[in-house]
Amino acid sequence: MDNRRKIVNYFIEPGFQVRYLAFLIGSSFIPILVTAAIISYFLRQNYLLLVNYAALDPDITSLLMWELKFLIAIIGVTFFCFFAAITVLGIVFSHRIAGVIYKTRKTCKEIASGSDIELKFRDKDEFQDLADDFNVMLKTLRNKGTTVRAS
Questions:
Q1: Entry pTM
Q2: DSSP secondary-structure letter at 54?
Q3: C or N: which end of the chain has fewer Cβ atoms within 10 Å?
């Protein structure tokens, strides 16, 4: 069974990823909340001025108040969707970084146990050059080890 798409698999290094998401969500939550509050406040003040100082029919007044509530709800939903998108993108991006950490640790343990392997990341992972540098270092160390044993 192919379980690559399960959300659990996106948390390869939960300690790092949860801290990363907490930072990302925390740093975006306050500006989103403040922006939504300011927009809602000024929108409400303008509507209340219009309703209180214009000689409007009661039906128009109730329609304007309904429209105000609807606009504030739309603002709330829009900012919630933005917040949800930040969270999803944060999970995906942290997964691409955590995958590198996981694979590097796993490869180091396998090399320490005597396996003759190289480090390879998934195509979309970050830090592709790290794998290349690691493999060059590994090849150099193996060559030095062969030279020392031959002496």
A1: 0.68
A2: S
A3: N
Residue 138, in any domain of the structure? no
**What is the spatial distance between Cα 127 and Cα 71, in angstroms, rounded to a whole number?**
44
Kindly state the tokens that stand for 70.
């609807």
Whether residue 36 is contained in a domain is answered as yes
C-alpha count within 13 angstroms, C-beta hemisphere, residue 67: 12
Neighbours of 130 (CB within 10 A): 15
Per residue in 24-39, pLDDT tens?
999 988 888 899 899 9
Q: Kindly state the tokens that stand for 36.
A: 């939504």
Question: Is 133 inside a domain boundary?
Answer: no
**Number of domains observed in the structure of the chain:** 1
Mean pLDDT computed over 128-140: 91
CB 122 within 8 A of CB 99: yes
Of 93, 90, 81, 83, the closest CA to residue 28 belongs to 83
Give the single-character DSSP code of 13. Answer: S
Both tokens of 4, joined, read 């690559």
Q: Is residue 103 part of a domain?
A: yes
Residue with tokens 């950490």: 101
Residue 119 CB-density burial (10 A; 0-12 exposed, 13-18 middle, 19+ buried): buried
* Contact call for residues 57 and 86 (beta carbons, < 8 A): no
